[in-house]
Amino acid sequence: MQEEKVKFETDGLFYNPHMHFCRSFSSLLVGTIPEELSLLDGFSASGIRGIRYASENPNVKELSFVDLDEAAVELSKLNADANGIGAESTQGEFNSFLNDKRFDFIEIDPFGSPAPYLYHAFRTFRRTKGGYISFTATDTAVLCGAHPGACRRVYHSEPLHDELFHEVGIRILLKFASQVANEFNFGLKPLATLSHRHFFKLFLKLEKGSAAALTDVANTGYITLCKGCGYRQAGKVALEVCPKCGKKTAWGGPAWLGELHDAETLDKMQELNSQREYLHKEKLAKTLSLMQGEIGMPPWFYEIHKTCGRLNIQPPPKTEILLKNLTDAGFKASQTHFSPIGIKTDADICSFGKALKG
Ligand SMILES: C[S@@+](CC[C@H](N)C(=O)[O-])C[C@H]1O[C@@H](n2cnc3c(N)ncnc32)[C@H](O)[C@@H]1O
Ligand SMILES: [Zn+2]
Q: How many C-beta neighbours within 10 Å does residue 107 have?
């Protein structure tokens, strides 16, 4: 097999070619970190993630793998050697393995939810000033509200199973991670937050101190959506009744209401991407550019077609015209990576309706 410049074997072990884009995105992110890193590729399988991180980024100085499966342990070591990367590979259960370990960057890439692994991962940083954690979640159906009971049970939040589901789902996951980090006296700075296909991927910098942890607490709240008139709002409380039309609302949370990305990190990722010849170079640039537009925006968006339906506006305007109408009226406006027909803006629903009509 080959992914970018890495040649590797899978020997029938887990390998998902659809995660190629995610691994390229993640490797760009690792490359933006200014410090030298000891990096743990937890849940390594063939080791392709860690090998790409280490072979593409000179700041990765030490690479370790851990996997439950003995065959994966041998394979990740062989694959690393074949690509000229020195790596330690250990057979073990992720949480138990971490007991007395310390790394600068921990990569968590499990099947399903990362929730059972976050406590032990954050705990490893307890005697340090900080570090980095990245994790994948493929239980998006739970976070997005297809199974509300599971979301309440695992993430202690109410999901929102409607047009904002991906954004609210990822914000619930971020809220959950921040609560675990806060227990160890860390606040979280999201460097980048990606929703793609069937997965969420989060990249977090840990910032030490109770002030940082309490900022996370202040960043937590609820997102309310009125499916009657399209009103939406984010705040410390969920609104059960729409203040505009009086209908019963839908709401999700508690969820992270702060920024999802760090501007400097995204700029550096764009720069690195322009220097690399990745298969998904164009798609990566487009995704990063959409994320850049999400910074400084409310923690929700308007879906053009649903909003036109609610406000009886047909046909929907072209996206470029809508964006221009909003900026001409003095609002911030951009597309979002959460939906190809989603618009982030600081315009309220009345002003958004006017911009839709042109
Ligand atoms: C989704 S795959 C990893 C994919 C890999 N990172 C990649 O990019 O191709 C999950 C891996 O985690 C391993 N695993 C599952 N539960 C584990 C646990 N509790 N501790 C350590 N490894 C585990 C499995 O054996 C499997 O190899
Ligand atoms: Zn309403």
A: 24
